[in-house]
Amino acid sequence: MIITTQYKYERLDINNINIVIANSLSIMTCITVYKSIIQPHFDYCATILYMLDKNSISALQKLQNRGMRIILRCNKYTPLNLILECLQWMNHHHHNHHHHNHHHHNHHHHNHHHIIIIIIIIIIIIIIIIIIIIIIIIIIIIIIIIIIIIIIIIIIIIIIIIIIIIIIIIIIIIIIIIHNHHHHNHHNHNHHNHNHHHHQIIIIIIIIIIIIIIIIIIIIIIIIIIIIIIIIIIIIMIYENKR
Predict the structure, then answer these.
(1) Which of 29, 43, 67, 234 is the Cys-Cys partner for 105 at CB 3.0 to 4.6 Å?
(2) Could you tell me which SUPFAM superfamilies the record lists for this protein (predicted)?
């Protein structure tokens, strides 16, 4: 290959290895020439701008083995024989090794793709399993909360029934005591007044007991309403989360 004179460039296309030789051009000019003239016509996977020196051949070999397309940049101090040596080496080694390396590289790349897909699938499966476990745990917690609420309601109702029974027993005992007291004191001169007084006491006690029972019933109703509201809120939250 003939290296062209100053301010010109030569493109060599050796079966997918693209070499730009720019003699006596600044690095910026070289990039400009490359971008405006050469790059639009090729699908480069990498752009390597290289100053040719003693290590160029080994560097070229490494790049070529990685399946990269190469740009060489020379200046006026680059020995012509070194440039020609590089070109000869590339032309020679291309026929011997490049096809095999390229095939191997592609096969290796394909394997990488398979591994990445498998890893992604595993990650997705793990995430799905975690989400299912979390949903199951949430459902179990909600069921436990509902059971606890039901147990609390039952306990409250039992306690209230016991309180009402105790109050009724107390009323009966008071009525019996007052009746007995009245019966024993019926010889008293103030019999009528006394009887009236006792009747007043009984009425007051009954009114107080009725008020207490009404208050207890109201409290029970309020508690049940609050619990129902809480359950409804929990169900709505679950439904919203599932959506």
Answers:
(1) 67
(2) Helical backbone' metal receptor
